[in-house]
Amino acid sequence: MSQSLLLQNVTVVNPDAVFVSDVLIQNGRVSAIGNGLTGDIVVNGSGLYASSGFVDLHTHLREPGKEEAETIESGSRAAALGGYTAVVAMPNTDPAQDNVATVAFVREQGIKAGLCEVLPSGCITVGRLGESLAPFDQLAKVGVTLCTDDGNGVQSESLMQQALVAAKKLNITMAQHCEVSEMTIGAAMHDGECCSHLGVPGWPAEAEVQMVLRDIELVRRTGGRLHLLHLSTAESVALVRDAKKEGLPITAEVTPHHLSLQDTLLKSFNPIFKVNPPLRTPRDIEALKEGLADGTIDAVATDHAPHAGHTKEQPLDVAPPGMLGLETALAVVNTAVTLDVQKLAALMSWNPARIARLESHQGRPLAVGEPANIAVWDTTSVWTVQKDALASKSKNTPYHGMAVRGRVHHTIFNGELVVHEGKALK
Amino acid sequence: MKHLLDTHDLSIDDIVNILDVADRMAEVNRRQVPKVPALKGKTIATVFFEDSTRTRLSFETAARRLSADVLTFLASSSSVNKGESLRDTIETLSAMGVQAFVVRHKSSGVPLQLSQWTDASVINAGDGWHQHPTQGLLDAYTITREFGTPTSLAGRTVAIVGDIKHSRVARSNIDLFTRLGARVVLVAPPSLLPSHVETWPVDVRSTMDDVIDNVDVVYLLRMQLERMQSASIPNLAEYTRLYALTPERAAVLQDHALLMHPGPMNRGVEITVDPADVAGSRILQQVTNGVSIRMAVLFTLLGGDSVSSLTAGGEA
């Protein structure tokens, strides 16, 4: 018998109820729920919520290939500090996760780090080049549940159609980065009024909308399951809303930054605010929030994209897009949007766990016998983001110096306390 | 004022003051020995990541006439081509003891980015499609002095013709001209207008003939021939037919109307008349005024000891 861990007097957030209780954890599972429990290690949960651990559908861990920006270990630590007990590792590594060996490597490095579950995604096309399909059947056999060329949209309609046909057959999900690339050549920020005045090559909303439109039609044709990554425009939200009403097997995510930051931040020409898709307008932000509220958007996903500092000291049109997200996600979403705690847990944990097909052990209710993957958090603590205090190897957070509300206090992964009082224990 | 990055950072008072100082500089430039000790002991570096010999020479001439020392950094012959970051470049040059950087870059925003990594002043000598503030100031100077209204362009109409979308000159000029009271009319094919042009403080016309006989200034932009490849305009002949200043169009200009161009001209593309044949042409005057304006900007930013240093005259 391992030592038991007691969350004392915590407010449990489950899909069917929110209630104050003690939660006892032993041997990797919840062993008791009730009042007056005792345990070997006691964590005071007064005034804090406990939900299933968060699940990030969209994490760039950069290993293998760009270890100077992030490693699977440093990214896992950032995840745990953000309350995540599982992350889906994006496949734009070098080599890309288009083969069994690389997928196995990423998974093993995640197990070795032991801070959260690392689920490698696969590519849709070989090398993410958009030319030929990745070996989905082999990838599915080693546990890949979601394939994407994230960073690139699959430009070819016929390839995407074949991918969705395969997705249906293999019971996996194709996750699309919606961007018609010929509409965004050289683009560095949202093509709007601000961009027009700044003289920066613009990233039109239509480049996203056109691919959302096309892919909805492909799902209609094939029945393959499609997940839409990082929606950023009002029009995309409207299209997905209608597609869902039609009953198509489509899910969608939004990032914390697209809910909280707008294109005018680029007036600083600071590449820290450059991201793909770009920060949009207040109108888009409102539509994304409505999409969250009415269920059109299923999940918050970080698109955590570490970049070494010097790469963000290049001209705006040259610097790589992307920003950190794991350690600030809960706070940023909670600050930007008013959501009840069950909705927050649904967006951060329950829904993404299902989309990633991790629902056997992630995104579970806190109940006796369930695997103990748990985040303990609040929605009221105000704190100031400090980039140097982040565990990520890179420091490219757009929130440095900003006050946010809501904090992750403790994270329990596989029954083990990996984050205690905001500090990683390994 | 520490930097000159964007015309929008200048108040009307700042603009009028720079134009006033430029009058004094123009007076220096008319002397037999056009040199004053105003910035003696200061070091000014021209840092051109993108070639522009004219603009660089204009700044360097301005600096030397104020007795500053000049460093010339050309990216084509430097470590930038070996992958040095912007920050490393500017920090290295700063370490040599530089009081002002004059920066040209093909990417919008670079001068602003650089200003965070140096204690020196940064002067934007053109960044991407964004801004070219000294061009805007020298153009405002040229027009206000021609019309004898040193603080205002009220009641004047300026037509800016050509590739507005990709033009840093247009962005600086539109801001300065409109804030000085002018009405600005853009004349360009739709593909060469910026997106969201309806949010700009301008009118838009689709051919030169719509405006040519009732404007006070025709400002031609250089047609970037490489835009042809990106299919932004149907073809050069079509462009010339609708947008060039031809002898016929020059003939219907109002008597007092000015012809301006930031240079270098593409003869036979945006201009088919010989500017020497247009009485209102101020194209060479712009170049002369450019030196005065850049002297005024350097003097203003680097706090030339006092105005008396301008009247001392002669080689120091």
What tags apply to this protein structure?
heterodimer; A: 426 residues; alpha/beta; Urease, subunit C, domain 1; TIM Barrel; 28% helix; 23% strand; B: 316 residues; Rossmann fold; five-stranded parallel sheet; four-stranded parallel sheet; 9 strands; 35% helix; globular
Q: Can you give me a brief rundown of this structure?
A:
Chain A has helices at residues 72-81, 100-113, 136-141, 157-170, 193-198, 205-222, 234-245, 256-260, 282-293, 329-336, 341-355, and strands spanning 5-13, 18-26, 29-34, 41-44, 49-52, 54-59, 84-89, 117-120, 146-148, 173-176, 189-190, 202-203, 225-228, 250-254, 299-300, 374-384, 403-413, 416-420, 423-424.
Biggest sheet of chain B: strands, sense, closure? 5 strands, parallel
CATH class of the largest domain in chain A: Alpha Beta
Q: What strand order characterises the main sheet of chain B?
A: 7-6-5-8-9
How many individual domains of chain B? 2
The CATH class designation of the largest domain in chain B is Alpha Beta
Secondary structure: helix percent of chain A:
25-40%
Shape of chain A: globular
Oligomeric state of the chains in view? heterodimer
The CATH architecture of the largest domain in chain A can be named as: Alpha-Beta Barrel
Give the structural class of chain B.
Answer: alpha/beta
Superfamily at the CATH H level of the largest domain in chain B? Aspartate/ornithine carbamoyltransferase
Measured on Cα atoms, how large is the radius of gyration of chain A? 20 Å
Q: Can you write the helix and strand succession of chain B as a string?
A: HEHEHEHEHEHEEEHHEHH
CATH homologous superfamily grouping of the largest domain in chain A? Metal-dependent hydrolases
Instruction: Choose one word for the global shape of chain B.
Output: globular
Total of domains of chain A: 2
* Secondary-structure element series of chain A: EEEEEEHEHEHEHEEHEHEHEHHEHHEEEE
**Low-confidence runs of at least 5 consecutive residues of chain A:** none
What is the end-to-end distance of chain A?
Answer: 22 Å
What's the Cα radius of gyration of chain B? 19 Å
Q: Largest interface, by Cβ-Cβ below 8 angstroms: which chains and how many residues each?
A: A-B, 22 and 23 residues
